[in-house]
Write a structure and sequence with these properties.
By secondary structure, the chain is an alpha/beta fold. Helix content is about 35%, strand content about 30%. The strands form 2 sheets. A 6-stranded mixed sheet has the order 6-7-8-3-9-10, sandwiched between helices. The protein has a 4-stranded antiparallel sheet with strand order 2-1-4-5, with helices on one face. The longest helix has 18 residues. The protein is globular and about 50 Å long. The two termini are about 35 Å apart. Bound molecules: adenosine-5'-diphosphate (ADP) (2 copies). The site of one adenosine-5'-diphosphate (ADP) has 12 residues, from β1, β2 and α1. Belongs to the ABC transporter superfamily. It comes from Pseudoneobacillus rhizosphaerae.
Length: about 230
């Protein structure tokens, strides 16, 4: 489903060049929940942002759902983002729109007509467990509820891949667990491939099938969660 081959990302900064991602190779299978863990500055965010064209690699090739995303622009980039959607640490909701308007937003952009949008939004509200909160504004929701809106919005156009950028890092432990349970449920029910980045081992251990450990732009370990975190 996802192939990352010899990928590098170099940023130019005042101090010189920063190699944020350094010769990374990863293959991710359809239906897998794949985690990338590492300390702050390891390059996780740069890596995941290259999977949907938010960053373009300096070198190497990335293919997601048979689409080369490592040098993609314009219309094909917009199409790719419907297939490869993303949720964020701070949710990135539209604060002047209600829950159902936030979820309907990507459907509007995709040109789906009103009747179909309404049906789809109702399905998504049920899927993420937000019944009764349809007309609330984000400021009236708890952190966990905001992330449920983020997830529903990300799933609106039936993506093939869901990218999670520190999606539970702003949440308390109990809310984190309920959001992780929801992600597992979605993975099982829809067969959706999930790639997540986190600095929390617990997140990886709770839901990931495989994990890559990232340090200074490089993958230093990759394998099943049991293999990588086994006690010596
Ligand atoms: P992580 O997500 O693991 O915290 P990042 O991908 O955000 O790591 O950052 C990796 C490295 O790249 C860091 O040294 C960071 O300072 C640098 N970096 C990230 N984004 C930029 C940018 N837009 N310009 C310059 N340097 C950047
Ligand atoms: P949490 O309380 O779960 O951490 P926040 O309410 O702080 O979530 O929202 C996360 C992000 O959204 C922050 O960057 C914050 O500045 C921004 N934000 C929160 N409320 C509003 C608002 N009413 N209008 C615009 N941005 C907002």
């Amino acid at each position: 489903m996802i192939s990352i081959k010899n990928v590098q990302k170099i940023y130019a900064s005042k101090q010189g060049q920063v190699k944020a991602v350094d010769d990374v190779n990863i293959e991710i299978t359809e239906g897998e929940i794949f985690g990338v863990i590492g300390y702050s500055g390891a390059g996780k965010s740069t890596l995941i942002r290259m999977l949907n064209g938010l960053e373009i690699p300096s070198d190497g090739t990335i293919t997601v759902a048979n689409r080369v995303v490592s040098k993609i622009k314009g219309r094909s980039l917009r199409q790719a983002r419907q297939e490869i959607s993303m949720i964020f640490q701070h949710f990135n909701l539209l604060w002047s729109r209600t829950v159902k308007e936030n979820i309907a937003f990507p459907l509007e952009i995709a040109g789906i007509d009103k009747a179909e949008r309404t049906n789809r939004v109702n399905e998504l509200i049920k899927l993420v467990g937000l019944e009764g909160r349809e007309n609330a504004y984000p400021s009236e929701l708890s952190g966990g509820q905001k992330q449920r809106v983020g997830i529903a919005r990300a799933l609106a156009n039936n993506p093939k891949v869901l990218l999670c950028d520190e999606a539970t890092s702003a949440l308390d432990p109990q809310t984190t667990d309920s959001i992780l349970d929801l992600l597992v449920d979605i993975n099982k029910r829809l067969g959706l491939t999930i790639v997540l980045i986190t600095h929390e081992m617990h997140v990886i251990q709770k839901i990931c099938h495989r994990v890559a450990v990232m340090e200074a732009g490089r993958i230093v370990e990759l394998g099943s969660v049991l293999e990588v975190f086994k006690n010596p």
